[in-house]
Each structure stands twice: as C-alpha cells, then as structure tokens.
Amino acid sequence: xxxxxxxxxxxxxLASLNQSQRMVPASNLKLITTGTALHYFGPDGRxxxxxxxxxxxxxxxxxxxxxxxxRGDPTxxxxxxxxxxxxxxxxxxxxxxxxxxxxxxxxRIVGDGSAYEGNLEHRSWGYDDIGTYYxxxxxxxxxxxxxxxxxVRAATPGEPVxxxxxxxxxxxxxFQNHSVTGPEGTGNSLxxxxxxxxxxxxxxGSFATDRRPKTEHFSNKFGALTCAYYFWxxxxxxxxxxxxxxxxxxxxxxxxxxGFVPEEKAGEPVVLGETVSxxxxxxxxxxxxxxxxxxxxxxxxxxxxxRTGVAIYDSCLVAQRQVLTELGVNPDGVRQVDGSGLSRMxxxxxxxxxxxxxxxxxxxxxxAFLASLPHPGEGTLSAFLQGVAGRERVxxxxxxxxxxxxxxxxxxxxxxxPAVTLSIMTNHTTAxxxxxxxxxxxxxxxxMEEI
Length: 451
Fold this sequence. Notes:
Blueprint: E1 2-8, E2 13-17, H1 30-41, E3 48-53, E4 56-58, E5 61-63, E6 66-69, H2 86-99, E7 104-105, E8 109-112, E9 147-153, E10 162-167, E11 174-177, E12 180-182, E13 191-194, E14 200-204, E15 206-208, E16 214-219, H3 223-237, E17 241-242, E18 246-249, E19 254-257, E20 262-265, E21 270-276, H4 280-290, H5 293-308, H6 313-326, E22 334-335, E23 347-348, H7 350-360, H8 366-372, E24 394-401, E25 404-412, E26 418-426, H9 433-448
Parallel strand pairs: 5-7, 6-8, 7-17, 8-18, 11-14, 12-15
Antiparallel strand pairs: 1-2, 1-26, 3-6, 3-21, 4-5, 9-10, 9-16, 13-14, 18-19, 19-20, 22-23, 24-25, 25-26
Helix pairs in contact: 1-4, 1-5, 4-5, 4-8, 5-6
C-alpha cells in the first residue's frame, strides 16, 4: 500500500497517490510529538528535577530522607552531549544539600517518580519490544534513559550465551539467563523479558556463533530506584554519611527499599532547589535525528502531565488534541496512541501529515522544529540519497518497522524556506527495505527537480 502527497508552497500538487488513506506511520509520528511539544513548551522550555527532604536538620545532620523529585527529564544520567555528566549533576545536588546545612543523612535517598501515573509503556506495544532499549517506556524519574547494558558473546552451540551486565548496576534485579547459542547463520534474537511489577528479568532467544561479541541495550524498569542508587553511591564515595540506603516510591505511594518491601507512606518534602535539562529544541533534535523513542515518549507524557495534571496516555492524547487544534489542524484526522510511533495502532494519512507540516510553518516554534529534522547523511538517514546534489535541502523524518517505510518533511528552497511539503508512506511491503527505499529515493529526487 502506497500513500503519497507533495505540495509546493503555492499549494500545487506535485505528487499524489492514495493521499487520504490512513496508514501506520512508524516513527514519522515523532514529527507530531516534537512539533506539538515545541509549540506548547517553546524551544527554550526545560524539564525540571527537584531535590527536597523530609525530617529535621540538626547540627548538620538530616534526620530524615532526601528526595529526588522527577518531572520527566529524559536526559538524567544519559550519555548524550546535551545531558549533564553524572559527576556534574550529582555535584549540583550535593550543593543544594550543603546550602541547606546538610552534611550527613540519617535516612534514605528516595527516587520519587510518582508524578507520572499509569504504565511505563503503551498497552499496544509488542511484548518483545518492551524489554528492549527502544521500548523501555518513560517515567517521571529516569536514569540512563531507563536502559541497561549487557555484553554478550557466543558460546558453543546449544550452550547459554555468555552474558555480563555492564551498566548501570542494579543490585536488586534477579536476572536469569535462558538464552542459547545458535549455529552459524541463525542471527541474533536476544530479548530481555522484564516488568516493573517485580525485580525479575529473563534473557531469552539465541545468538549465533558467527556473531561478534557486542553490547546489547535492554530495558530497565526501575529508573527512579537506579537514580537514587547512583546518587547514594556518589555520596558514599564522596565521604558523606547516608545511613538508610536508597529507595523509590511504589504505585500506592509507599517508600520501598531495595528489597522491594513497602515501608511507609512517602512524605511531602521541603524543596531545596532544582536542576534543569537542556532546552526542548535540543531534545527534539536528538529525538528526530536519532529517532529516539524514549525522548519522544518523554515529550509526549510531559505535555500531558503539564496540560492536564495527569500523565497517563489517555490524558496525553487529550493534551495533544488541544495543541493540534490551537495549531489549526483537525485532530480527528489522525489516530495517535503514543508519542514515538512504536505502536501499530497509530494511523495517519499523507494528506493529514502534510496539513500538519504546513500548520507547523505558522507556529512560533517552526524554526526550532525545522532545525530538529535530519538531512540525508545524518542519523537514521545516514545512507539515504548518497551522492545526490542538493540533498542538504531535504529535511525529512524517516519511519520504519517491519513492512513499513515512510518519509515526511520538507524540501527547502535556496533561501532556506520550505518549497515542498511532502509525506510518502508505504505499508504491508513484502520487498526488502532497500528495494523500497530506492523507489522512495527516486521519488524524492524527482520532487527536488520540481523546485
């Protein structure tokens, strides 16, 4: 199934095929998430993480708990150029404690991710996907993009794959390796099966003997606890006394320790200060260039929580519809259930996508939105339109999953403004992705010649 619409700046149709057919957009959906987030928060908007405490401060000793209060920042502990390095981040938090007269903590470091209600993942995501780094789901307090890394190496066929957890440390996690080394040519089908309901994870699948050792990135369902653990560890290594260890808050509002035993209701902390993320424009740029599902879901849920006060997916959709209406786009023209496009329950037509991309040109945040889109040669477009003259004028987002390949965005004129707005979608393809991509590249080159 093909769907195509390309319009020039005067509204003239350059290409059209099944333009009104709703199709699965895959990561093309991130265009909607990043654009509406930039419009709503502004390019300079930022995520904020607060530090607070409960109890009393006496002679430099806090007789109580330190709270890390998350509000959705996806960059905490991340290995990104826009993220604060852990030493810098933890240093800022220690400065807040010191400024309050705290030099020791007779209590716990509590990771508070309670600002976001509901599941980490959307219910329609594949069971395999939710154990991967790209299906980890976001939370109010995350760490290292809620990912967990394992080094994997093939063993003798039929034997378990050699596995070693590398980063981050998760001392509470009960991990079992049920993977199998497969014969040559059988590929890599390793998946981590895990849940936030209990600290258990199983590695299943196979890894072929002709595969080189590598690092696999899986899902860590306990971002708030991981963040608390690493701050606690940093304090200990810095010579601070913290007697109560580390903990997080469960869905019922109880503090639970690393043994996952609920202890008492979380308190109302006194806020000492906050740290802020990189601007939304920088986060949107990484989201679109790298096609980062975690960052996209963070933007989506932050908009829902900020606009409605609730971060469950249904509330996020309410917020999204309101912002689309403000942009002058009919929200009934798209079926959106998540922020990243990982769900196959998302449906959008090329016609609606083009109307949305045109509306974004009228937004005060358009310059930031346009700058967030990759050019061929960047990110997921690293090998696209190689050797094509003028490809730097193409600003598009790719979207792909099994049987799906899409490109939507703009072709710019010499003055840097959009000359063509386009959306090209394919669904249910049985040909190899490389073959489909060659056809799409040919169509884009023809559209470039129309300018």
